[in-house]
Amino acid sequence: MGELAGVLARPKLVRLLDPELRSELLWQLDNLGVSFEPTERVTDCRDAKDDKYLELALASGAGAIVSSDADLLVLHPWRSVRILRPAEYLAEAEGRGP
Description:
This protein has 98 residues and is mostly helical. It has six helices and two strands. It has a two-stranded parallel sheet. Helix 5 (70-73) links the parallel strand 1 and strand 2 (82-84).
């Protein structure tokens, strides 16, 4: 949770995100979210720091990873997990995408 709070506190996001909304989002994730611990180690990403997201996707049974990180996007699809940019994911959710 600390990492997400740090990201949401970055200057470029602070000016875009209402402080009340930020607090509500963090509260909901902390109180209503589900945690997973990776059980399988992977080394498939060219940036080793991003392997943790792949491990978490496996542990949680995720169908998609939403990211703008080129090191993850280049893997799409990965072990039947779709890796999509935020705009692509939103377009699909709204019925405008593939």
